[in-house]
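ugh ok fine here u go
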Amino acid sequence: MTTADRLTGPTPAPGAQSRVERAAGGTVRRHPRPARSGRRRRRAVALLYLLPALLPYTLFAVLPLLHTAYLSLFDWDGVTLPSFVGLDNYGRIATDPQLRAAAWHAGALILFFSVLPICLGLVSAAIVSRRAGRRGTTLVRTVLFLPQVIPLVAVGILWRWVYAEDGTLNQALRAIGLGGLTDAWLGSFTWALPAVGLIGSWVVSGLCMVLFLSGTQRIDPEIYEAARMDGAGPVREFMAITVPLLRPEFAVALSITVIAALSSFDLIYITTGGGPGNSTVVPGILIYRLAFGGGAVGVASALAIVLTVVISLAVLVINRLSREAP
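structure:
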């Protein structure tokens, strides 16, 4: 080593960085392995926290769904040995006129289970939020939400009494001089489906109201004050401020109510059983009839898989549209 090297120190290798450069803020590359190992560790910890919920979900939701998809590939009456038919059961579903009628009825129920409750819930939430803190507001909220906590079996029995020939509805019509409008509502080919749909509207409206009320509470009151200073009235505030800012609640309410409409079973089974004739048959009722009454477990399983896919796609579309909306 020369005298100059002893005085100045060893020459750093090309690309190397001295301590002075590091102290001066120079960029130092870090090895990616510690970061990756940290992410893996965090994912493992997260999975451990999710495990108590994932196990029952897998046992009681994922595995039965996979088993149903397996049964949909067989022609089986539930007793004898099944025979493999591949996708023939799905072909039968596509050409069955009874299924087309059930799909049409389920689409009509979306109007009663989704569109009408969302409109009623939105108006109710707007009225209740403007009367917040006043006497009786809590009672009104409780009464409107009460149908949501009543079991649907009890709801169906209750409304069967209301819709009976000597029930509350017909008695009220006779009392006000409209006895000519009385009907056996749940036994009418014309009015059975709308009658059941209105029951669903009554049940779901309270849930929509609560969702929208929770959304109105996160809206800054200063926005309303600024609108009032500009001369906006209650209707203008509602349309220009409340409705646009409740977009996340709209997506949740629409997802829940569409699922309720497409998967409806218990309410229709208790009130009409799918009748009169097939005027209130929906996919859920048809699956029950095929599996437990018609000895066509394979076709019923295929219909259940198709219904699951349709509901999943509907929810995905709703969520996608809610994110992309301006």
